[in-house]
């Protein structure tokens, strides 16, 4: 299957999961934005970058590249994302029907590839383990954003000293 098709399938899987959670989903037109979707979670907009993982026969892990990839007929260009580009990266492992939900800062902390270990073959949990099906991180983040906005709004209403 072509890489673009895998990405499209991953995006639709994330859209479906968001809808199941009661979140509205917005999709930017074109591919100019550094995020793929926006989830409206209780009135707070969350920018989501969607990635599709592939299985590596050599490592027996699922792997995802955490860089931006632009392709045309002649070349493939990779560049790094910035913290302002998206709030969360959601990695889809379509073969297993599961997701890894990374806060942007955690996703960008990896060098260039993230290995997602789905076999019990290690004594210690991999660094990515806490993000397996961690959709609750988005809800928690939304609450902190609302709290920060409320506090900021209260300060702006305070009379000048």
Please give a structural write-up.
The protein is of the alpha+beta class and 161 residues long. The chain is 28% helix and 30% strand. It is built from 3 helices and 10 strands. Strands 1-2-3-8-9 form a 5-stranded mixed sheet. The protein has a 3-stranded antiparallel sheet with strand order 4-5-10, with no helix packed on it. A two-stranded antiparallel sheet has the order 6-7. A hairpin with a 4-residue loop joins strand 4 and strand 5. The chain is globular. The model has no long low-confidence stretch (mean pLDDT 88).
Task: Write a brief caption for the model.
This protein has 161 residues and is an alpha+beta fold. It is 28% helix and 30% strand.
Shape: globular
- Tell me the fraction of residues in β-strands, as a range: 25-35%
Assembly state (oligomeric): single chain
Number of helical segments? 3
Mean pLDDT: 88
Distance between the termini: 64 Å
Rg, Å, rounded = 18 Å
Give the biggest beta sheet.
Answer: 5 strands, mixed
Number of strands: 10
Please write the string of helix (H) and strand (E) elements: HEEEEEEEEEHEH
Main sheet strand line-up:
1-2-3-8-9
Helical content stands at: 25-40%
Low-confidence stretches: none
SS content category: alpha+beta
List keywords for this structure.
5-stranded mixed sheet, 161 residues, 3 helices, alpha+beta
Present the secondary structure layout:
Blueprint: H1 3-20, E1 24-26, E2 37-41, E3 44-52, E4 54-56, E5 61-65, E6 68-71, E7 76-79, E8 88-93, E9 98-103, H2 104-108, E10 113-116, H3 136-157
Parallel strand pairs: 3-8
Antiparallel strand pairs: 1-2, 2-3, 4-5, 5-10, 6-7, 8-9
């Amino acid at each position: 299957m072509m890489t673009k098709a895998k990405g499209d399938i991953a995006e639709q899987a994330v859209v479906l999961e968001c809808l199941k959670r009661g979140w509205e989903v917005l999709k930017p037109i074109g591919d100019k934005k550094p995020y793929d979707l926006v989830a409206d979670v209780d009135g707070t907009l969350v920018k989501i970058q969607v990635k599709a993982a592939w299985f590596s026969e050599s490592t027996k892990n699922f792997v995802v590249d955490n860089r931006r990839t632009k392709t045309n007929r002649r070349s493939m260009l990779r560049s790094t994302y910035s913290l302002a580009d998206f709030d969360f990266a959601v990695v889809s492992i379509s073969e297993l029907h599961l997701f890894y939900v990374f806060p942007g800062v955690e996703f960008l902390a990896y060098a260039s590839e993230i290995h997602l270990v789905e076999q019990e073959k290690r004594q210690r949990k991999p660094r990515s383990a806490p993000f397996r099906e961690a959709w609750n991180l988005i809800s928690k983040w939304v609450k902190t954003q609302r709290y920060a906005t409320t506090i900021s709004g209260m300060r702006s209403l305070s009379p000048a000293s």
